[in-house]
C-alpha cells in the first residue's frame, strides 16, 4: 500500500488493484477538547471512535446501496478499522455539502439575527469550500459554476443526492427515536463517465443527532443505531 493522504480523521492508501483504502483514526474534530462536526481542527482523541465511525459508515453505505444511491463504498473491515473504496476525484480542492433539518451550529452563528435555535429548516442544503484557512466559507451555485469547480447541472445533481441521502439517514435514525439535526457529506466523480457519488464517511463525527432534545455523542450514537442489528 502507498500512503496518499493523511487527513484529520482518516488516512488514505492506494491499493495495487486500483482501489483505495481508508484507515479510520480515533481523532475527531472540535475545539478545546469539545467535539464539533463543523470544526476545522482535530480537537480531541476518542478511543474507539475510528471503529465506531466505520461501523456506522458501513451500516449507512449499505442502506444507500439497497436504495440504489451511488457511493464509492466497496466493503469494510471493522476490526482493522479500514474501508475499501473506488477512487474518486473531488470537486476543486474539495467541497462539503450540509443538509440542515434544524438551525444549529454555523448556520445559527451566521444567521442568528433571523433564525432561532432549533427551528425547522426542512432539509436546507448548502455547500462550503474545504478551506481550513478561510473557515470553510459557504459558496453559491453561481460562484461554483463561474469558478469552474462544478457546473450548474452538477450542482443540481449534488443537491438532489444530498437530500435523498440525508432523508434515508434521517428515516433510519427515526426508527431508533433519534432526530437528525444536520449532516455533512462529501462527493466526488468516479469512473470514465465521471458519475457523481457520495464519498468519505457517514458517522457520528459528521452529524448532529438528538434524542428527547439531548445531543448524542458520536460513540453513543453508534451504539444506539447498531444495537440489535
The description of the largest β-sheet is: 8 strands, antiparallel
Uncertain segments are none
Radius of gyration: 17 Å
Count all strands and give the number: 16
The average pLDDT score comes to 92
Order of helices and strands: EEEEEEHEEEEHEEHHEEEEH
Main features:
single chain, 229 residues, alpha+beta, 5 helices, 35% strand
Describe what this molecule looks like in 3D:
Helix 1 crosses helix 5. This protein has five helices and 16 strands. 28% of the residues lie in helices and 35% in strands. The chain has 229 residues and is an alpha+beta fold. It is globular. The strands form three sheets. Strands 9, 10, 11, 12, 13, 14, 15 and 16 form an eight-stranded antiparallel β-sheet that branches. The mean pLDDT is 92.
Secondary structure topology:
Elements: E1 2-6, E2 10-14, E3 20-24, E4 27-31, E5 34-35, E6 42-45, H1 49-66, E7 73-77, E8 82-85, E9 89-90, E10 95-102, H2 105-111, E11 120-129, E12 138-139, H3 141-146, H4 152-175, E13 179-190, E14 195-199, E15 207-211, E16 214-215, H5 218-226
Antiparallel strand pairs: 1-2, 2-3, 3-8, 4-5, 4-6, 7-8, 9-13, 10-11, 10-13, 11-12, 13-14, 13-15, 15-16
Helix pairs in contact: 1-5
Amino acid at each position: 500500500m502507498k500512503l496518499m493522504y493523511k487527513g484529520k480523521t482518516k488516512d488514505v492508501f492506494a491499493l495495487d488493484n486500483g482501489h483505495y483504502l481508508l484507515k479510520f483514526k480515533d481523532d475527531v474534530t472540535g475545539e478545546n477538547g469539545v467535539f464539533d462536526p463543523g470544526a476545522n481542527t482535530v480537537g480531541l482523541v476518542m478511543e474507539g471512535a475510528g471503529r465506531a465511525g466505520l461501523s456506522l459508515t458501513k451500516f449507512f453505505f449499505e442502506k444507500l446501496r439497497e436504495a440504489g444511491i451511488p457511493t464509492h463504498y466497496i466493503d469494510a473491515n471493522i476490526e482493522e478499522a479500514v474501508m475499501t473504496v473506488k477512487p474518486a476525484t473531488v470537486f476543486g480542492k474539495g467541497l462539503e455539502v450540509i443538509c440542515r433539518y434544524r438551525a444549529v451550529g454555523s448556520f445559527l452563528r451566521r444567521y442568528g439575527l433571523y433564525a432561532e435555535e432549533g427551528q425547522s429548516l426542512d432539509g436546507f442544503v448548502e455547500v462550503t469550500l474545504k478551506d481550513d484557512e478561510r473557515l470553510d466559507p459557504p459558496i453559491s451555485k453561481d460562484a461554483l459554476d463561474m469558478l469552474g469547480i462544478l457546473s450548474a447541472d452538477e450542482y443540481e445533481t449534488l443537491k438532489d443526492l444530498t437530500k435523498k441521502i440525508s432523508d434515508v439517514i434521517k428515516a433510519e435514525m427515526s426508527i431508533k427515536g433519534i432526530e437528525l439535526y444536520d449532516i455533512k457529506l462529501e462527493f466526488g466523480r468516479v469512473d470514465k463517465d465521471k458519475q457523481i457519488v457520495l464519498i468519505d464517511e457517514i458517522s457520528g463525527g459528521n452529524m448532529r443527532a438528538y434524542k428527547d432534545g439531548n445531543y448524542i455523542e458520536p460513540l453513543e450514537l453508534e451504539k444506539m443505531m447498531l444495537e440489535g442489528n
